Amino acid sequence: MAQIIISVIVPVYQHKNYIQVALDSILMQKTQYSYEILIGDDYSTDGTRELLKNYKRKYKDKIRLFLRPYNLGATLNGYMLYKQAKGKYISILEGDDYWIDEYKLEKQVKYLESHKEYSAVFHKCKIVNEKGEKARVNYSNFYHSKEGYAIEDYEKGMLPGQVGTIMFKNIFSIPNKNYNFYYKIHNLVGDQTLYCLLLAEGSFGYISEELGAYRFVQKIGKTNAMSRYLKRNVCFEEWKYHCKLEMCMKKKVGKNINLKEYRKQEVKVAKRILKEKKDFISLFMFLKICVLNILWDYILKFL
Predict the structure, then answer these.
(1) How far is CA 133 from CA 43, 94, 113, 147, 213, in A?
(2) What is the rounded CA–CA span in Å between residue 185 and residue 64?
(3) How far is Cα 11 from Cα 172, in angstroms, rounded to an integer?
């Protein structure tokens, strides 16, 4: 069997209304490089599984389907797919997003093959709503530059676009490397952890073309990752996440990453919530984050 060059990772949860568009956008790809599609359904109950089984029957040589026996959480579901990936490179497409360029995979592999110094390459994407229409939202912290993206850019609070835009070297197949903290430090947030791990291996390249679409759905009651995240104490939870990420990168990967800018933003969010709600819980959360943030900066010096 020929070597698989690309593993396309598709984490899915309650995506019945979107998954066919997502999978068709993968299957339409025109590329000289062999690729596999790894789908991990995190115990959907809305009819998504039946659709996935139909695709598996139709494309049994292309699709590897993993039906989780219970809900694992987004990061563990994703990590288990990474560990199964056979490709030299990995590309991600969440079940509610889709690609719009049939040569997306071809362009990104060619870029990485000709730029060996980069650990990943990302591209522009358009942002749409649940109907596929242009969304009225602006991701000002999405980074776009012909010069690429380095660890210093991440530390400043800039992100290399949405996770569906990235293709990266399969770091999860490197012998003697253990990244299982990927799913342990947060059960929903994984993109920033992934970026840190990749930046430890090298900077990112950039393709200034719009090759995919990110479906932005942020409503309480919805089941996509962004909407599920709304139900949680996001402010303090994000602060803890960035602390854990700093510690894991230093202790587990041997790379110092300063996420002070992210933690400062979370303090600002806590302050804004206090101004809006003016209740004891908001005051307690604000004071807790402020005090812990000062202590954490001190502790980091001795880690």
Answers:
(1) 28, 18, 34, 30, 10
(2) 27
(3) 16
Q: From residue 129, how far is each of 70, 117, 161, 249 by CA, in Å?
A: 29, 36, 17, 34
User: Using an 8 Å Cβ cutoff, are 179 and 195 in contact?
Assistant: no
148's tokens: 């690429």
Distance in angstroms (rounded) separating the CA atoms of residues 161 and 144: 8
E-only strand ranges, the chain:
6-12, 35-41, 63-67, 89-92, 98-99, 120-128, 167-169, 204-215
**Spatial separation of the C-alpha atoms in residues 266 and 114, rounded to whole Å:** 39
What type of residue is 222? Answer: K
Strand order in the sheet with 63-67: 63-67, 35-41, 6-12, 89-92, 167-169, 120-128, 204-215, 98-99
DSSP-based three-state secondary structure for 297: helix
Given a contact cutoff of 8 angstroms between Cβ atoms, the answer to whether 175 and 193 are in contact is no
Residue 205 and residue 99: Cα distance in Å, rounded?
Answer: 19
Tell me the average confidence (pLDDT) per consecutive run of 10 residues in the chain, 303 residues long: 90 97 98 98 98 98 98 98 98 98 98 97 92 75 71 92 95 94 96 97 94 82 48 79 96 95 94 93 94 93 81
Check the CA dihedral 259-238-121-168 and report its sign: positive
Taking phi first (over 0 means left), then psi (-120 to 50 degrees means alpha), and beta for anything else, what does residue 97 get? Answer: beta
Provide the 3-class DSSP secondary structure of residue 153. helix
